[in-house]
Amino acid sequence: MRVERLSRDKIRFFLSLDDLMERGIEKEDMWRDIPKVHELFNDMMEQAYQELGFEIAGPVAVEVFALPAQGMVVVVTRGRTPHPSDFDELDDDDMYELEISLEESDQVVFCMNDFEDLVQAAIRLKPMLPEGSRVYAYRDRYYLVLDTDYELRTLQAAIAVLAEFGEASTTTEHILQEYGRTIWEKDAVKQITQYFAP
Fold it and tell me: Residue 93 pLDDT > 70, yes or no?
């Protein structure tokens, strides 16, 4: 489980499939009000406090993005910070209120900080994924988008390669098309290696 701060009141967790399996949680369980999901959320909040000093009390919005073959991203946004006197009226079960939304993507989107990372990833991906990929530039970063109609083993191998050069992103292709710049709209891996591989 990895956590990072996005803003003063927002953090993001990346939960791998292994993180979920260790706790006996399926993706569908994230919707359910069951003890092991509460336990996972408490562990996440403990880690956020330990690593980032991020504390929650009161309303919390939780967005869960299920990523194909790689786990999920959980974005936690803190609402109003209660006044200390509010705690007198709360018992332990009311320390925070959760509002959960779940989205599932049918694409794999990875973000790379620089063009060289994109080139190196493409070189390693070419034998696996010769076609069916797109690249966008958005907010000074590069986004490689793969459809998930490959067989699962191929997709998992591609994700493992991509994780070496970038990070899974919850930015949708629609946002990239609308606000980013299209660099390659088809067969990006093939084109990158054709022009930039030694």
Answer: no
